Amino acid sequence: MMANARLYSTRQVQVLDQRTIEQGVPGFALMLQAGQAALDEIMKRFPQARRLCIFCGGGNNGGDGYVVAALARRQGLDVQLLALRAPNQLQDEAAEAVHLARESGVTIDDWHQGVEIAKTTDVIVDALLGTGTRGEIRAPFDRAIACINAAPQPVIALDIPSGLNADTGALLGDAVEADLTVTFIARKFGLYTGQAPDVTGEIVLAPLSVSETTLTDSDYTGELLVPERLQNTLPRRRPTTHKGHCGHLLVVGGQPGFGGSTIMSAETAARLGAGLVSLATASVHIPPALTRCPEMMVREARNGLDIEDLVDKATAVLIGPGLGQGAWGQGLMQTVMNAAGPRLVDADGLHLLAAGYGGERRDDWILTPHPGEAAMLLDCSVAEVQADRYQAALALHRRYGGVIVLKGAGTLVVGGEGPGECFISPFGNPGMASGGMGDVLGGMIASLLVQGVPGLEAAASGVLIHGLAADDAAREHGERGLLASDLACYARRRANPDRR
């Protein structure tokens, strides 16, 4: 695992910062490095920019803004610094930054006096609030954030967009909508999930003088999924490999009128390399299933008894898409639950799980809820789930066991309490806001599962492939009109990394 792909809580980043200072790097030196890194990113993206407007609060985040102002001024740029905290109120390294800015010829204005100037600048820099912000954003910061968001210029956030919770990805009211976030020392967990993708823009990590050893030896919360992971997860097959070596997946679901979901799950599983794929569904869906993918084996499921032999033969079972919550779905669910072996439970299967198997806890299943289903499983509100997605996923794991895939922007994969058992996907796009995306994700994860990939890794790599495939498809044809069934061919390419 790359150390710079690790995700840290606010407290863990503070420890990294303190350890680096103890190793002989002064705190103000780190602040200077942060300011230089941010200015370098600004000039790399906007080389024609000549005027910066920097909104500064208090604390070290404000100090970072003062350093950017000083360095930009020394580079010959026109700088307008708008202070929301009186400069003489800043302390320690931030006070040194104020002194540096003044020495460099930066004019410091009260933010009210500079609002009109902000409208005529080339780039706006957000240095209002840092990672320690927790409560609701109050005046005057809420008004300054509104001012920044109303301006047409590109916005660069220092460390984290003001108004975003660095640990959870939840908004603390209105947040600065940045085009670029330059985050310092290490990646903050909350930059990659929840509502964060709406406000972070592109995220660039500036590790400053924090050593690789310090990062490697320190506590962290989770890991960001990266494409390189697939090189190790999905090894090349032996020349003598045959279908029996690649697992047998059984997909169960598809009441009359809802067969598309199970067909997509099954076809996607086949495209990602499952050796055999069986589909147990309502009889009306058998002809379209075989027309769509003649390689799958399809059987009518009138009740749970019809699938007992299939469940026993399968390497793993995916149940839930289009299953319904009536007697038919309940009977199929009961048969699957009574049998041993790995399971992936999704969609209606999650509702039946909560209704009839609330006390069931298994280590060999994967549950894939979206926020609404997670709220149902935890008997709480969707808002509570989204307020802290990581804690919600942990709560699901503690209650139900196994691996939890909490879908949504910044999909979370959690298989335990340790940092090596939590992953976030930074991939995917708004084109995925269409029906069936969760069904094909289930097919991808289940396909890897039957091919012998352990549950947690199957979930993590399946989520990764899903997001990458969607991004590939959107890059080629655009986001609008992207369908779930479009992903299978792109996912197949990603599932064969040696071919790329």
Automatic annotation (TrEMBL):
<keyword id="KW-0511">Multifunctional enzyme</keyword>
<keyword id="KW-0521">NADP</keyword>
<protein>
    <recommendedName>
        <fullName>Bifunctional NAD(P)H-hydrate repair enzyme</fullName>
        <ecNumber>4.2.1.136</ecNumber>
        <ecNumber>5.1.99.6</ecNumber>
    </recommendedName>
</protein>
<feature type="binding site">
    <location>
        <position position="159"/>
    </location>
    <ligand>
        <name>(6S)-NADPHX</name>
    </ligand>
</feature>
<keyword id="KW-0520">NAD</keyword>
<dbReference type="Pfam" id="PF03853">
    <property type="entry name" value="YjeF_N"/>
</dbReference>
<feature type="binding site">
    <location>
        <begin position="407"/>
        <end position="411"/>
    </location>
    <ligand>
        <name>AMP</name>
    </ligand>
</feature>
<feature type="binding site">
    <location>
        <position position="322"/>
    </location>
    <ligand>
        <name>(6S)-NADPHX</name>
    </ligand>
</feature>
<feature type="binding site">
    <location>
        <begin position="60"/>
        <end position="64"/>
    </location>
    <ligand>
        <name>(6S)-NADPHX</name>
    </ligand>
</feature>
<keyword id="KW-0547">Nucleotide-binding</keyword>
<comment type="similarity">
    <text>Belongs to the NnrE/AIBP family.</text>
</comment>
<feature type="binding site">
    <location>
        <position position="162"/>
    </location>
    <ligand>
        <name>K(+)</name>
    </ligand>
</feature>
<keyword id="KW-0456">Lyase</keyword>
<feature type="domain" description="YjeF C-terminal">
    <location>
        <begin position="226"/>
        <end position="498"/>
    </location>
</feature>
<dbReference type="InterPro" id="IPR036652">
    <property type="entry name" value="YjeF_N_dom_sf"/>
</dbReference>
<dbReference type="Pfam" id="PF01256">
    <property type="entry name" value="Carb_kinase"/>
</dbReference>
<comment type="similarity">
    <text>Belongs to the NnrD/CARKD family.</text>
</comment>
<feature type="binding site">
    <location>
        <begin position="130"/>
        <end position="136"/>
    </location>
    <ligand>
        <name>(6S)-NADPHX</name>
    </ligand>
</feature>
<dbReference type="InterPro" id="IPR004443">
    <property type="entry name" value="YjeF_N_dom"/>
</dbReference>
<feature type="binding site">
    <location>
        <position position="439"/>
    </location>
    <ligand>
        <name>(6S)-NADPHX</name>
    </ligand>
</feature>
<feature type="domain" description="YjeF N-terminal">
    <location>
        <begin position="13"/>
        <end position="216"/>
    </location>
</feature>
<comment type="function">
    <text>Catalyzes the dehydration of the S-form of NAD(P)HX at the expense of ADP, which is converted to AMP. Together with NAD(P)HX epimerase, which catalyzes the epimerization of the S- and R-forms, the enzyme allows the repair of both epimers of NAD(P)HX, a damaged form of NAD(P)H that is a result of enzymatic or heat-dependent hydration.</text>
</comment>
<feature type="binding site">
    <location>
        <position position="126"/>
    </location>
    <ligand>
        <name>K(+)</name>
    </ligand>
</feature>
<keyword id="KW-0479">Metal-binding</keyword>
<keyword id="KW-0413">Isomerase</keyword>
<feature type="binding site">
    <location>
        <position position="61"/>
    </location>
    <ligand>
        <name>K(+)</name>
    </ligand>
</feature>
<dbReference type="InterPro" id="IPR029056">
    <property type="entry name" value="Ribokinase-like"/>
</dbReference>
<comment type="function">
    <text>Bifunctional enzyme that catalyzes the epimerization of the S- and R-forms of NAD(P)HX and the dehydration of the S-form of NAD(P)HX at the expense of ADP, which is converted to AMP. This allows the repair of both epimers of NAD(P)HX, a damaged form of NAD(P)H that is a result of enzymatic or heat-dependent hydration.</text>
</comment>
<keyword id="KW-0067">ATP-binding</keyword>
<dbReference type="InterPro" id="IPR030677">
    <property type="entry name" value="Nnr"/>
</dbReference>
<feature type="binding site">
    <location>
        <position position="438"/>
    </location>
    <ligand>
        <name>AMP</name>
    </ligand>
</feature>
<comment type="subunit">
    <text>Homotetramer.</text>
</comment>
<keyword id="KW-0630">Potassium</keyword>
<dbReference type="InterPro" id="IPR000631">
    <property type="entry name" value="CARKD"/>
</dbReference>
<feature type="binding site">
    <location>
        <position position="370"/>
    </location>
    <ligand>
        <name>(6S)-NADPHX</name>
    </ligand>
</feature>
